[in-house]
Design a protein that fits this description.
12% helix; mainly beta; nine-stranded mixed β-sheet; 4 helices
Length: 189
């Protein structure tokens, strides 16, 4: 019998060690959408050295530190996705900002940042995204490749994204927190 998957939209997918796909090894993914047709998310802990340029440099003043473009995932590497922290979690819907959960929203990067600035306190930009086809993410979760954990606002806009995988696991209750200490090579354990 088919068991429904845990609700993942607005939650974190934390890769269990070791995940064989190098794109996702020790990654923390924020899920933007998850439905019968598939799922989409962005990797939160892969900052790059790429700065916003061209027409997107207008967003620099709203950009959360570290102020670089993040590697959102291996799909559609030309796509840019903006996540924003809303000033008010119950803000009125807008044509430029769409609430995902709580005070986290997607921001229309083609909009004038001045039109968005009143509603958001910070923005983070991702190049590409992580995507799964129908049932694929559910299967990976069932196989134990991902832990589905609650997201905190500081996860999406972490000031130390390189430490996010460890930080998210360390705050979990019981033995789950032990995973934060797992070596890269499990044979060394």
């Amino acid at each position: 019998m088919f068991a429904p998957s845990p609700q993942t939209k607005g939650r974190l997918l934390v890769a269990t060690p070791p995940l064989s796909d190098p794109h996702f090894d020790r990654s923390v993914v924020f899920v933007l959408e998850h439905h019968d047709d598939g799922a989409i998310g962005v990797i939160l802990n892969r900052p790059t050295t790429e700065a916003l340029d061209g027409p997107l440099d207008r967003w620099i003043d709203l950009q959360q530190a570290p102020s670089s473009v993040f590697e959102g995932g291996p799909v559609e590497r030309n796509a840019l996705i903006g996540l924003a922290q809303l000033r008010d979690a119950v803000a009125e819907p807008s044509e430029f900002v769409t609430q995902i959960t709580g005070s986290i929203a997607s921001a229309d990067l083609s909009a004038d940042p001045a039109l968005v600035a009143a509603a958001v306190s910070s923005v983070r930009v991702f190049r590409g995204y992580a995507g799964w086809g129908a049932g694929q993410l559910d299967d990976e979760i069932d196989e134990g490749a991902w832990l589905v954990l609650d997201a905190e606002i500081d996860d999406v806009f972490a000031s130390r994204p390189d430490e996010l995988w460890h930080d998210v696991l360390r705050r979990q209750p019981g033995r789950l927190a032990w995973l934060a200490l797992a070596p890269d090579d499990l044979s060394l354990n």
